[in-house]
User: Which sequence fits this backbone?
């Protein structure tokens, strides 16, 4: 079975290199914010008919992977 994370793409020419869904102009960040606001995946599919349930699950999996980062370092400015 294909990993859901393969649905998340990063392209410097799309949305300034932010992670997006399948190379479309739907940033993962925005979809996560909508889910966090209380919208359901079914509601989002109505609003974004070119996306699929698996796309939103991929966003959640991507966010979960980001929480597994061991350390975050502050860069000197």
Assistant:
């Amino acid at each position: 079975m294909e990993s859901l994370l393969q649905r998340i793409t990063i392209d410097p020419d799309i949305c300034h290199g932010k992670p997006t869904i399948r190379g479309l102009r739907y940033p993962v960040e925005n979809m996560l914010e909508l889910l966090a606001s209380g919208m359901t995946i079914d509601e989002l599919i109505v609003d974004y008919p070119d996306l699929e349930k698996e796309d939103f699950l991929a966003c959640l999996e991507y966010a979960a992977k980001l929480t597994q980062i061991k350390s975050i370092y502050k860069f000197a400015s």
The first strand starts at residue 8 and ends at 9. The chain has a mean pLDDT of 92.
